[in-house]
Amino acid sequence: MADRKTGGGQQPDAKGEASGDIKTDASAKIERDSFVHTFFKKGAEFTDELLRENDRLRKRLFDLESENAALRTHLASDEAIRELLRKIEYLEREKEQLLSHVREAERNSSHLFTRYSEVEEELSNLAHLYVASYQLHSTLHLREVLRHLKELLTQLVGSRAHAFYLKDGSDLVPISSDGIELSRLPRLAIHAGSRKEEDRGSRDRTGDLIERVFMTGVAHIEEGELSTAPRDQPAACVPMRIDDAVVGVIVIYSLLDQKEQFLPVDYALFKMLGAHAATALMGALLFANSNGKFPGLEAIDAITRNVGDDLK
């Protein structure tokens, strides 16, 4: 039996063979354990390395996502800015259009305001003229007529000193003055070249001017700035008329300081005074000459008949 097991050679020691197998198994186990240990160790190291790489990649992905979000935000911000710029440009155009409309409206408003002021001034001038004419013919008392004339010249024209001359024969006689003594005003000859010698020696040209205005019937009114007007002659001389006859002259020697120049309303007032002051003064003088008595019925009938005959 033993030969069949060993093949006819030297038979191994059964104990020694068992001992060798045990050693071989132990060595193999050690190698296996060592391999397994090494394998798992490398696997663990590889796993750790994979985890670290995974963390790095995850962090990198987070960073890229953050950068992407920042870029998206930046792009959105740029688009918002561009939109705002377009909006601002649109608003600027709209603002220019509105300003243009406002300027046009202001020009129209200024034109309307100017026209309104002109109309208001014309109405005021008409009111002044109405009041002036009403006051002049509201009384036949010479003192009242002169007071009204003084108020009109002072309040409406701005007169500081003035006088009224009426024709008396061949002379012009000062009958009333304000702001200048009446006794200082000379009688003036009204025939050209026949001025009295005492008047010819006068340094100013007042006498010549009053005489010329009376003779020609053309008013003299300083134009432009009154501060530059000659000091040796009146600022204005206005002829007083009854119908077509010149019967006197209104002389304005000086004006209040605030009066810088004559205005259109002054010219209109001078024209009205030239037509109405003489009739008011003459009516007052005739009334005073009649001792304040009104014409009786007989006189009225006679006047009516004469008027009727003249109209036939």
UniProtKB/TrEMBL annotation:
Q: Which InterPro entries match?
A: GAF (IPR003018), GAF-like_dom_sf (IPR029016)
Cite the SUPFAM superfamilies for this sequence.
GAF domain-like
Q: Which residues form a coiled coil?
A: 47-122
Q: Can you give the residue ranges of the GAF domain?
A: 141-291
Q: From the UniProt entry, list the residue stretches annotated as the region Disordered.
A: 1-25
Q: Which residue ranges have biased composition labelled Basic and acidic residues?
A: 14-25
Keywords, A to Z, come to: Coiled coil
| Pfam assignment, any one | GAF_3
Descriptive protein name: GAF domain-containing protein
